[in-house]
Amino acid sequence: MTEIRALPLPLTVETRDDGKTVIRGMAAKYNTRSVDLGGFTEEIRPGAFDAVMQKDGRNVVGLYNHDQNYVLGTERAGTLRLAATSEGLAYEIDPPATRQDVVELIRRSDVYGSSFAFTVARDGDEWTTDDNGKHLRYIRSIEGLYDVGPVLTPAYGDTSVAVRSLEKHLQTHRPALKLPALQRDAKTEKAIRRFLRQHGRKVG
């Protein structure tokens, strides 16, 4: 299942010597703690993009707001270029003349974030708890990379896949979790069950 992350990382528009426009941005940054994603935070570890960057036949697409109606560039055509740097995943896009509206929005800082759609490799993430007993996910290997590009709202997107991964972690590692995390999980489960009872739904 594909996950989406969007965040307010550096996003710029530059004009080359030949007069053509280039959009430059960071789709992801290593060792940077995310906002709360629904009961957990996460960090992408250095090297997480190494495997996917070596894949043959990869054709990542540059999209605005993950919308396939707003294609800005593609790897296949050479109008999108990716680089796994020491800081994270960087990208460059040569947008078509028909998408100068997006370019203008970036120049005016109406659009100021980047996003990417991805899948995590099997056993490519690790769950633990931080010093405050909150769940923390480390992403160590990304298997699939599908699109990158500027987004209007740099807030984290679809986390349902990661939430299911968190649920699996809780089921298999619950005895090893720190007491504060156990107490918080128990309160959450009780609240959910109480809500379902109040709304007439069957509780197992």
User: Which of globular, elongated, flat, extended, rod-shaped describes the shape?
Assistant: globular
Which segments are poorly predicted (pLDDT under 50) over 5 or more consecutive residues?
Answer: 175-186
Class inferred from helices and paired strands = alpha+beta
Q: What is Rg?
A: 20 Å
Average the pLDDT over all residues and give the rounded result. Answer: 82
Q: Please write the string of helix (H) and strand (E) elements.
A: EEEEHEEEEHEEEEHH
DSSP helix count? 4
Widest sheet: strand ordering: 1-9-12-5-6
**Amount of beta strand:** 35-45%
Secondary structure: number of strands: 12
How would you characterize the largest beta sheet?
A: 5 strands, mixed
Count of discrete structural domains:
1
End-to-end C-alpha gap: 27 Å
Helix content range of the residues, please?
10-25%
Q: Care to describe what's here?
A:
The protein is of the alpha+beta class and 204 residues long. The chain has one domain (3-159). Helix content is 23%, strand content 37%. The protein has a five-stranded mixed beta sheet with strand order 1-9-12-5-6. Strands 2-3-8-7 form a four-stranded antiparallel beta sheet. The longest helix has 20 residues, at 179-198. It is globular. It starts with a strand and ends in a 6-residue tail after the last helix. The model is unreliable at 175-186 (pLDDT under 50).
